[in-house]
Amino acid sequence: GEISRNTDYGVEIMSYGIFNMYGGVIKDNPSKIGHIGVWCQGGTFKMSGGEISSCTRGVHVTCTNDSSRSVAGSFEMNGGTIKGNEIGVSLFTYYDGRGYSKENIIQNSKFTMTGGEIINNTEIGVDMGHNIHDSNFRAGGKLTVGGTAKIQDNSNKNDYSCSNVYFRYGEIKLTSSPAFKEGAYIGITTPSSTLPTKGKPLLIVENVSSQNEVADYFHSDRDGYVIKCANTDDSHTTHTLNLTVSPHTHSWEYKKEDQSTGSVTCISTTGTCDYQNKLATVKISTAKPKYDYETITEAPKAVLTYSDNWPKDVAKAPESAIKYYK
Predict the structure, then answer these.
(1) Can you name the residues that pair with 266 across neighbouring β-strands?
(2) Which of 213, 217, 273 minimizes the C-alpha distance to 247?
């Protein structure tokens, strides 16, 4: 079956309502705040098959701010595909107006994904911090992942797109069962303002068990960063998953700057170093710029002068290797 071209949401699930999707297609549903496939405000949406596509937001999970029926929306996905939308899934959190930390949360939408795929959405796979509805409603929520969940190949890779999981607010957790399996992939993007620096990683998931291999399923969408497990204490039984600056490996490029000067720079795109932006140089010189070979009484001696920032792991040529011609 197909749900499409409705004047409001394709499916609207309000407080305590439940909608199960086993197959079929939900697509192209214009609404008052954009094309939304499934609007889940305080209810539960369970997806085990089918496709949601061609919407501004495929699934929007949010909360109510009505004190008489205050409840958070919940989305459970173990199959099916969400693709070809601008945003695949958006998770919203309701804050108390005094800040955006965990202590300020009134209601937190939830998304548990253990199967299926969120792929080829043009801006964001799962929005946890990019969009703002008003001062108290912001993208955030709680994302729990495991099994064969795949959030990959989202965004059109331009300056305005934000990739797979856009993680700024909210929290990410792991399912205890099922654990991650082959085929799972979780791409992570953070805004530039929260990117880690050397020695200061960014927490992605806390309270990770001893299965270090879980880090293999998380991937940084940005070049130059990796997601790794780190011990939280000396027991080595609990860990955190952190976004860190990639270890840097030099890749040297040598150039001739002029007749007497050579240079070396690092052209590696993994991590950073001073040599990516600043040349190190070596200059060959003699006491005189020119010699008269008919009157010269001894062979001229050339010397090599290296800049103070010459890399320690790039060998210096010995002056004994200099060859002279006349």
Answers:
(1) 252
(2) 273
Does the reported pTM lie above 0.90? no
Q: What would the pLDDT profile of 42-94 be if each residue is shown by its tens digit? A: 899 999 999 999 998 999 999 877 665 668 899 999 999 999 999 999 999 88
Q: State both tokens at 240.
A: 């955190």
CB-based contacts of 179, cutoff 8 Å, min separation 6? 146, 147, 211, 214
For residue 63 the two structure tokens come to: 């909360």
Strand-pair category, 303-306 with 280-285: antiparallel
Q: What is the DSSP letter of 296?
A: -
> How far, in Å, CA of 41 to CA of 73, rounded?
5
Beta carbons within 8 Å of 146's beta carbon, 6+ residues apart: 113, 114, 174, 175, 176, 177, 178, 179, 180, 184
Reduced to 3 states (helix: H, G, I; strand: E, B; else coil), residue 193 is helix
Strand bridging mode 280-285 / 261-266: antiparallel
Beta-bridge mates of residue 265 = 253
Per 3-state DSSP, the chain is made up of helix, strand and coil in percentages (nearest 5) of 5, 45, 50
Pick from 140, 148, 198, 184: which is nearest to 166 by CA? 140
Closest to 92 (Cα-Cα) out of 123, 58, 133, 153: 133
DSSP single-letter state for residue 317:
P
Q: Starting at the edge strand that comes first in sequence, how are the strands of the sheet with 303-306 ordered?
A: 252-256, 261-266, 280-285, 303-306
Amino acid at 214: V
Backbone angles phi, psi at 73, to 5 degrees: -75, 155
Closest CA to 105 of 86, 92, 118, 117: 92
pLDDT tens readout for residues 158-170? 555 568 999 988 8
CA dist., res. 60 & res. 45, Å (int) = 10
- Any bridge partners for residue 254, and if so which? 264
CB 228 within 8 A of CB 241: yes
